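User: tokens in, sequence out, please.
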């Protein structure tokens, strides 16, 4: 169990720390580029959204191109296609306009290679077909410091706003459930809804931008949408009965739309409220022997390579692909002697080819994904793989679908661990330093801010 979890952590570190970007895979050509994050429909791809609408400008790091902050995806595509630049974890940057301005100045002073990791595509192909892409991420100490400073400034602004709302006695609003009118402090309305209607969005002191929060909830109710399951109903009576009978008088904690309204989301750089709340004081106890006896794995909900079928265990998904489509990944692993990361690249290669309506066996292009799949089945190309040089490429470390749970079910061959120790692939891995969790917590942005305030007072 420990070895499996360690492998899963490696997979998570590589994919999320290096690949959770504004793009999913490095394009071999503009025609085959996948510029938007792909995600299986049953899960949300959105991370915490801590920024409200803004009319600020985002400037390109290398040229005069600029767009409004709301149109950041266009600029990120421009950086990728025109300058081969990728910025990691964009959604976790507290102030993206200032971040971009800072690095634009630094790139004018020094070459981009002084700061960025370089990823070479088609590394085993002809030199003229190889391309270098640049990754700007917080592995670089200067980038990490910049992100922390922007995070701290954002935290100061949020705490200041929260204090204003605490002291504000001009609040005036109707209850969403009984239309009773409340004036004075916001806590009177929030406490009323929690006490009389069993609807609580949290303690008033944990909330910021409260008026905007209540406006968002009211819009959902006005649109006849349940606040918890977010289903839409035909009239208000049906909606109220549903929320009462199903005990859905609460918000959907998985909806990232609400993250910006809770102070906890601003406290730790790169962490959501779920991650902060899941931290337990027991983690701070020094225990040399890791005990995984009570650890339980969540269902993976892996999606088939060829259809929309999902399974909760790796045995089920492997059996479905073998019996339903004639694709035996375990046999390929054994026959070809595939190591773990080679399996990762093969799965990502097949995913991308099918997404682009192309047969991965013969490379024939089709009008639609369905046509490509019919061809693969009819021509018996399910188990036909191209030469390894076509898929055993660095760009296929990057998942085609960022929530592809199938990647987490991949297993090693029996001698994989010894092979990796002796001549493992040069895979960039960012280690998680868990040696001193207490010191890590004490060095958080929030603690630093509170210390600074104490010293000033």
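Assistant: Sequence out:
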């Amino acid at each position: 169990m420990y070895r499996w979890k360690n492998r899963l952590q490696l997979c998570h570190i590589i994919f999320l720390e290096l690949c959770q970007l504004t793009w999913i895979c490095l394009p071999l050509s503009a025609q085959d580029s996948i510029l938007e994050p792909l995600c299986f429909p049953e899960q949300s791809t959105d991370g915490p959204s801590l920024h409200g609408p803004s009319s600020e400008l985002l400037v390109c790091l290398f040229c005069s191109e600029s767009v409004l902050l709301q149109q950041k995806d266009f600029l990120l595509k421009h950086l990728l296609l025109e300058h081969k630049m990728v910025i990691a974890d964009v959604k976790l940057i507290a102030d993206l306009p200032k971040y971009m301005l800072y690095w634009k100045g630094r790139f004018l002073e020094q070459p981009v290679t002084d700061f960025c990791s370089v990823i070479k595509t088609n590394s085993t192909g002809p030199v003229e077909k190889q391309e270098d892409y640049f990754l700007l991420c917080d592995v670089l100490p200067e980038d990490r410091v910049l992100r922390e400073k922007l995070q701290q400034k954002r935290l100061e602004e949020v705490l200041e706003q929260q204090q204003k709302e605490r002291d504000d006695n001009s609040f005036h609003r109707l209850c969403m459930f009984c239309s009773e009118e409340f004036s004075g402090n916001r806590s009177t309305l929030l406490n009323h809804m929690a006490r009389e209607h069993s609807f609580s969005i949290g303690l008033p002191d944990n909330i910021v931008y409260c008026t905007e929060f209540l406006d968002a909830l009211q819009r959902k109710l006005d649109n006849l949408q349940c606040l918890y399951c977010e289903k839409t109903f035909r009239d208000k009576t049906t909606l109220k009965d549903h929320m009462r009978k199903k005990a859905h008088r609460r918000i959907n904690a998985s909806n990232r739309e609400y993250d910006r309204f809770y102070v906890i989301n601003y406290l730790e750089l790169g962490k959501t409220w779920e991650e902060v709340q899941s931290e337990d004081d027991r983690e701070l106890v020094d225990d040399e022997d890791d005990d995984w006896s009570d650890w339980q794995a969540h269902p993976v909900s892996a999606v088939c390579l060829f259809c929309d079928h999902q399974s909760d265990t790796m045995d089920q998904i492997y059996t479905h692909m073998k019996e339903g489509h004639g694709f035996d990944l375990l046999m390929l692993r054994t026959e070809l002697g595939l190591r773990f990361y080679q399996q990762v690249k093969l799965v990502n290669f097949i995913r991308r080819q099918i997404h682009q309506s192309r047969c991965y066996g013969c490379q024939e292009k089709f009008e639609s994904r369905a046509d490509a799949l019919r061809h693969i089945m009819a021509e018996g190309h399910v188990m036909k793989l191209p030469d390894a040089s076509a898929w055993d490429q660095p760009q296929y470390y990057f998942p085609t679908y960022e929530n592809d749970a199938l990647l987490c079910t991949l297993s090693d061959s029996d001698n994989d661990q010894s092979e990796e120790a002796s001549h493992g692939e040069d895979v960039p891995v960012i280690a998680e330093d868990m040696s001193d969790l207490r010191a890590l917590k004490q060095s958080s942005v929030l603690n630093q801010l509170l210390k600074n305030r104490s010293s000033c007072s």
